[in-house]
Amino acid sequence: MKKIDWQELTPKEMFARSGTAQSVTRLSDTAVKIGLFLLMPYVLWLSKYNDSYVETIHAKPIHLNFDGIMLTLHNLFTSANLIVHESGHGVCYLLSCPEFITFANGTLFQLALPLIVLFYYKKRHNTLGVGLALMWLAQNLIYVAWYMSYAQTPNKYPFFLGGSATHDFWYMFSQLGVLEYDGLISGTVRVLAVMLLLGSYFYLLFSAYFTKNETKIKGDY
Q1: Is the pTM of this model over 0.70?
Q2: Integer CA distances (angstroms), 34 to 23, 31, 129, 131, 208, in order
Q3: Given CB 3.0 to 4.6 Å as the disulfide criterion, which of 73, 121, 200, 221 pairs with 24?
Q4: What does 83-103 look like in DSSP terms, one character per residue?
Q5: Domain boundaries in the chain?
Q6: What span, in angstroms and rounded, lies between the C-alpha atoms of 205 and 27?
Q7: Could you read off the pLDDT of 154-182 as tens digits, one per residue?
């Protein structure tokens, strides 16, 4: 048997030869294909999540229709993201960060976590993990775009801010002198986020259903 010179192998080849690759969930797995297909309604629904849509559902009961089911699912994801967001603010409260950084750190934390997950799976050549991390990042960006969109009306959704809390983007945009451009900024972020969401989702879907298994043997998981 030929001895393997591990120093000559690329990180991708080392990962594949280590045996760890055998336990990685592959895009070609039936469960992954079904899961990606079931994600499609939420992905398409999330693409329309903007300020005008939120305004139509604000303070209304959730019904067991398509929008109601998707909104319930979205609220679960958003609640988890908000824990990360508020943790970012909390870190600054503990470290006595400058005020601007304190306001910005919630959003920075919220976007940093999916980027860390993305980097983790990218280093391991895990296409499924990278794609899902990109979708998570896009979902956060869509939320951030919505948050930006009412910077000039910070009390529009009291259920979110409550009491005398200061709207993050009202403060940051005011400090940067761009408050009057909040619509342009939020709209641009939303367009980019939706492009990222749809691009990463349909890439995973195409790879799972139409890429030949031979390509996955080379480490495309």
Answers
A1: yes
A2: 19, 5, 16, 16, 10
A3: 221
A4: HHHHHHHHHHHHHT--HHHHH
A5: 38-217
A6: 9
A7: 777 655 555 567 889 999 999 999 999 99
